[in-house]
Design brief:
single chain, about 210 residues, globular
């Protein structure tokens, strides 16, 4: 589809350029997260407006709560990783003074992933080819968006555990978005899941 192709070409190009270039500047902190935000949320959102498409983010309704609740379903298995990986989760205690910055950069990164995989890829493909193709396209986009996350998640949960977790989250969130069409809830839920995991790490490693 031309619209998705434009988002991938322009957004992906901006992401690659910024992900490489920003660390070379004095604004290196959060460079990767900022590159993801610009490439996969700011640029596609601008293309949405330029092509006179409605953003269709969803509202503060039951769909919004469903998106948050969907991500919270995955909190329990993640909590089990905290006591099993002290070398990873103790870092949050040492980095506590800067956690507000971490929270901000995490927000713009994970929100961008949900916006792009759901609103840009899934919804547009669904309208062109039906729900099954939309969910499949979202799943493939989700998998591609989490290649870097797999690199560290496999160290925490093992390769099979990482693949299972990323596969389940991609499939379940795609199915829920198909029913709700509320990407705001997905964006918020993804962020809240990360916040709760860090809060658990801080509580477990005082």
């Amino acid at each position: 589809m031309p619209f998705i192709g434009a988002c991938l070409l322009l957004g992906g190009g901006a992401y690659l350029a910024l992900d490489y270039g920003l660390p070379l500047t004095p604004f290196g902190r959060g460079a990767h997260q900022l590159a993801v935000f610009i490439g996969f949320l700011a640029v596609p959102f601008t293309i949405l407006l330029f092509t006179r498409r409605s953003p269709e983010l969803g509202g503060l309704d039951r769909g919004f709560l469903a998106g948050i609740g969907t991500y919270l379903l995955f909190l329990l298995p993640l909590l089990a990783l905290v006591p099993m990986n002290p070398e990873h989760f103790r870092w949050y205690r040492t980095a506590a003074p800067g956690l507000s910055g971490w929270a901000f950069f995490t927000l713009i990164q994970v929100a961008s992933v949900d916006f792009f995989t759901k609103r840009i890829v899934q919804l547009e493909v669904e309208r062109a080819g039906g729900p099954a193709w939309g969910i499949l396209a979202q799943f493939l986009a989700w998998a591609g968006a989490h290649v870097l996350e797999y690199g560290w998640l496999k160290d925490l949960a093992g390769p099979a555990g990482a693949v299972l977790f990323l596969g389940l989250t991609g499939a379940v969130t795609g199915l829920v978005y198909w029913r709700t069409k509320n990407v705001l809830g997905m964006m918020a839920g993804h962020w809240i899941l990360n916040l709760l995991l860090v809060a658990a790490a801080l509580a477990y490693y005082p």
